[in-house]
Design goal:
- By secondary structure, the protein is mostly helical.
- It is 77% helix and 0% strand.
- It is elongated, with a radius of gyration of 17 Å.
- The model has no long low-confidence stretch (mean pLDDT 81).
- The protein contains four helices and no strands.
């Protein structure tokens, strides 16, 4: 598999994690009797955000081992990586903040 196809995968998973971190609050209203969907949404947010960070590390390890990164591609890879890390970090922080606020009764 080419490196150009591997690099967007962490970005896509971090975006999915971000979407779940924004929507999991509304998932609490999917069931009248339990908070099952709330916790499913929170778990999916964490899972996809952490998966994005792990995949990003694996892609960078593969890139450095193969030494097949061209000097023209370093900046786009770096930008995509920074965006993925930022989105993943924001998703984790936001989900944690909402869970803490919900547990405290806000």
């Amino acid at each position: 598999m080419k490196m150009t196809t591997l690099v967007p995968i962490p970005l896509i998973t971090s975006i999915i994690g971000f979407i779940f971190s924004m929507l999991f609050q509304d998932m609490a209203y999917w069931s009248d009797e339990s908070m099952l969907w709330y916790w499913v949404g929170a778990s999916l947010s964490y899972t996809f955000s952490i998966l994005a960070i792990i995949l990003l590390l694996l892609v960078w390890i593969k890139i450095t081992r193969l030494n097949k990164i061209h000097s023209q591609l370093v900046i786009p890879y770096l930008i995509i990586s920074l965006i993925s890390i930022f989105i993943g970090f924001i998703s984790i922080v936001w989900t944690t903040f909402i869970i803490i606020a919900w547990q405290s009764g806000f």
